[in-house]
Amino acid sequence: MSTESYHTQHAPFGAFASFTVGLVGGAGGFGQSLRGPARQNVYVGFRRGREAWRLLPFFVPPKSSAAVAYTGEAAQVGAPPPEPLRLHSLSPADYERRLDWASDAWTSGGFGFGLRTPFDRIPEPETLSAEAARFHFAPVVCGYLSYDNTAGAEAVELVFGIGEADAQMRPLDDTRPALAGFAGGNLFGYATAPSPDVSLRQGFSVFEDVPRDVRGLHVLGGETALVFKVPAGARREFPLVLGFYQAGVVTTGLTASYAYTRWFDSLEAVLQHGLEQHARYTELALRRDAELAASRLDADQKYLVAQATHSYLASTQLFQRADGRLLWVVNEGEYRMVNTFDLTVDHVFFELAWHPWAVRNTLDLFVERYAYLDEVRTPEGTRAPGGVSFTHDMGIMNHFTPAGRSSYECDNLSGCFSHMTMEQLLNWVLTAVTYAWRTEDWDWLGRNHPVLLRCVDSLERRDHPDSAKRDGILKCDSSRCGTGSEITTYDSLDVSLGQARNNLYLAVKTLGAWILLGRALRRLDDVAAAKRATLAVSRLCRSLVERFEEDTGFFPAVFEQGNHSRIIPAVEGFAYPLYLGMEDELAPLAPLIERLRKHLRGIFKAGVCLDATSGGWKLSSTSTNTWFSKIALCQHVIRRLFPDTLTPEARAADRVHADWQRRRGCGAFAMCDQILSDSGKVCGSRFYPRGVTTYLWLLE
Amino acid sequence: MSTESYHTQHAPFGAFASFTVGLVGGAGGFGQSLRGPARQNVYVGFRRGREAWRLLPFFVPPKSSAAVAYTGEAAQVGAPPPEPLRLHSLSPADYERRLDWASDAWTSGGFGFGLRTPFDRIPEPETLSAEAARFHFAPVVCGYLSYDNTAGAEAVELVFGIGEADAQMRPLDDTRPALAGFAGGNLFGYATAPSPDVSLRQGFSVFEDVPRDVRGLHVLGGETALVFKVPAGARREFPLVLGFYQAGVVTTGLTASYAYTRWFDSLEAVLQHGLEQHARYTELALRRDAELAASRLDADQKYLVAQATHSYLASTQLFQRADGRLLWVVNEGEYRMVNTFDLTVDHVFFELAWHPWAVRNTLDLFVERYAYLDEVRTPEGTRAPGGVSFTHDMGIMNHFTPAGRSSYECDNLSGCFSHMTMEQLLNWVLTAVTYAWRTEDWDWLGRNHPVLLRCVDSLERRDHPDSAKRDGILKCDSSRCGTGSEITTYDSLDVSLGQARNNLYLAVKTLGAWILLGRALRRLDDVAAAKRATLAVSRLCRSLVERFEEDTGFFPAVFEQGNHSRIIPAVEGFAYPLYLGMEDELAPLAPLIERLRKHLRGIFKAGVCLDATSGGWKLSSTSTNTWFSKIALCQHVIRRLFPDTLTPEARAADRVHADWQRRRGCGAFAMCDQILSDSGKVCGSRFYPRGVTTYLWLLE
Fold first, then answer.
1. Interchain CB distance below 8 Å, B684 and A71
2. Which of A220, A342, A478 to mutate to test the interface with B (most CBs of B within 10 A)?
3. Which of A374, A663, A692, B255 has its Cβ near the most Cβ atoms within 10 Å?
4. φ, ψ for residue A368, nearest 5 deg
């Protein structure tokens, strides 16, 4: 499809790095901890005999040769102008691209290029053998170049190269003869196995022939490439490995270095490992691809799962602290905030399938360092002791903020950048119980019984410090807000989702949290506390039922000030009990669920929560800013609990959502989350990990 | 002068880093190992009361607030547009700038801002106390902000800040309460001492008031600043320190880390040291400033010395190797080549004054790793054994090329990027004897006696392998050139300076080398070898005299193919014997010197070696590409040996040369070397260290 044009982040596990490529006419390449794509030209393609090179369109043609800075006047007036580069940039009509769960492959006639980003179920890291740890945690991406020249009458050359003048590169065989390829300092590089069919190029242009030193390179040049030869009559596939490496302490606030440095002492070691394990990585990637292919999802859904998983992996970061303990981070895409809790609670479904220990790691650090106590401001305007909650995040761009403080939350605000005290309290409860229940880590649940009890207290007091005034709905703002008020994770939407107090979305999420708390406390034989949870559920259910607008058939988004926005995330909070198989807990909620069903029936209409222009899902009827990861989460809940509410238009929107990502409105920034529902243009949350909520679709 | 607009690199010693600032309307800031200025907005200025901020013009006003990426739609349609920033960018007419040898100061009314980059005579590093080593090698730049508000009726605020969204910064007091300031990771930062008069700002804009967290910052924001308060009626000066830090191995090929990591364990340690030693650094900078001010140079020359010294320091790099030995590197400006030998030989005058051990360090590494043996191609077309020479450089961008190979030199070329075998052989001889003679390091000279003898052999054989055919002038090309031929350091000029064989410039430089060799060998009591040197001098002098065009009164630049270019560097080779006080050696060369005098008398005319448009010096009459560092070197030689040849026009050119550097043609890239003599525009060698040849002017 020629309108497709999108970057994908090809990333190892836990390295906060990606090789980004795919946008038509766009640069990309090796990026370490960036907010968006790197700025390298990526040269991938082939030529038959002495024809022009045919390259995938992953580069911005250089305006003039970098050699001019050296040759000065001579190049300007003396020497003849250089021959125009014999490059032909393939247009999307000339090739096919196929993004799978762990593979991204381009084919054009006999030519093939692919990148593999396998992921696997990783047991507790501390139990892994060194060999297994090296396999799972190597900061390496595998790929290949291939050509079927069996019917060809002349030799074909394949090329993989990088052009970036700022990042001067070096030939790897200077330091490791077993590697044919290039590296940028000790930080990133690419290689294949040396062979008579492989040659290296480096120069101001890898497609010009001169100048060359004694081994055929010009080490001054800002462009490097591997060239592979496929004789007439032959079919060849060459392995490629792309590696990253960052030595030493990379964080501040908390001192930590990449965990992979425990098993690899250099970039060269990473690349050599990648070549040695290339077949195993490939096999694993193909297994993942086959699993997604075998699912009952349609092609658009499969694409969304695949693209989302790639960007998730690119945001992951596995550290070891100074004392040797592992430290898990998911960075918040372009914002690079550390372990934003609103994302943790959404990543939990994917992470519990693949690396469940990562969830526990984050929960523990929230308790250890990012919990706090506050007071609350009651609706009556008085102050009262509040309770425990957790920060929005743990810092930004490898900097861990001081204990009890996030990088995001500011004071005296009522919109974006205010505190999310209630939201994060719910996130700890939901993530913690979901982790323990799914992994059956009852020891951990037992150790955290006191934390759960503090959460029960805090939840109740935010409803109201006076138990007689509780109705289950958040009515108090944290004292941390100063003169402002709490917001929800939906910080950039309008008030329908942005205000925490008296908010429908947050109330149903609170219901979900109380259901999980009740089960966890019963499991812990804490009958008294479990009773408080049961009471909270019934109280909240009753209150919500009362908020239903019987006349319109809708719930208002905010139970205040005559709000009449209609929102899809009214049902988001059911995701957790559904995921844990607690459907029986929902039976007593039938009056609420029936009203939510009516609500949903009313909103899947063009101009309400389906965009009148695009047909895409709008989280709120009154905001064109819609978030794909949350759409995916709500789709899952609705397909499981309210499938009959999905109109054919609502079901058809997967195509719209996939097109948003794979066209230029979002495609320049890999997976995007905040999208304008009418135009499909990204308006925030680029390069974003949270799309892995789509993993829930595979559980349906 | 309002046409002035230029960046200056404010750099510590040996850190290959600079804080670059000064270009009107241009970004700059903290740059580590870059090819040109960084891309940070630098906010420096003041405001009275609640007036608009008045800032020096070191920033590119942001087009839209970075907050939009977070607030999405809300910022676009919901919220009122943010108030326009109350910033007033000062124009050059509003302030004065004064660049001194180790200070750069801006004043505007009562406001003052300055940066200090002191340098000192550094004894052998291995003999230094830890305290002295910390003082000399700290990767820190000191500065200040001041305001004289004695006559003011309201408080004034001063600001120093940085804006760069890619380099997320962090407040330093998270990790070191004794520092008020910000850092980008562990890599760079700025600080002052905490005080009630100092406050910190961080946000999407440091000039907007919201949002702010509990300590008044917004750690998400890409802009940071220190704000200093000066009460009405008071005069205040606040210290500022700017620091760099790069931990661990930063090189490849040869394994090395920054020497300063031996004495500083973190960026924080560097910044704190900078604050503690601020007064000493300031005192040292002012001493350097006073020395330059007291010299007999005119204002233009002083400016050139100051600007050149700044860019030299920015290119220096002091490493320690894995075995603990120190490793000295000067990077070649924008090209970032390691220890380019053509530069080493020009830096020697500055380095022998301030850190002479650095010269020895480089000479030793050339012998240890970057010497090679070749064959030569005779004029008769035969091959014969050649001799020892040295590579053009040792690598590029922290990568050391394999032994015996440079990053620059390629095969089968006759122009730019060919081999410089003879040039580098001369450079080793000249640098080595100059080092030993000046420092009286006779031990080292003795140890290198065998190397000198190999150089004598090699020099003779490049003249001609058959002693009967020798006339002192290079006639053989190295076999490394393949089908091409050797070039000189003047690679980007036309053939008048570019071709090595039969080249006037190189022949006089050869004369200089033989003079130094003769003295060194006599000192070593090697009578036989000294005799060969004496013979070579007289032979070469005679040959050169014969090449003089008695009809035109000029020397041709190349003794081949009817070349009639006229060149200034005909006298460059005298710099070394003059520097070493060997004037007596020149007496027997009177016939040559008299003809060179005639040559010079003829060339200092508009349209010959003075540019007809600008009046600047042209190294060659047939090339508009002229190199400032070489002009400066030749000016020194000519003022000492041929002062009577300088026409008033030739003497007036210092103003032209200074204007080239301080206006926009070169100013965007700090000190530039390759300049188009008509327009004053840089055409290569930006951000360049070699301008320290101007140091010779202070010896006149």
1. yes
2. A220
3. A692
4. -65, -40
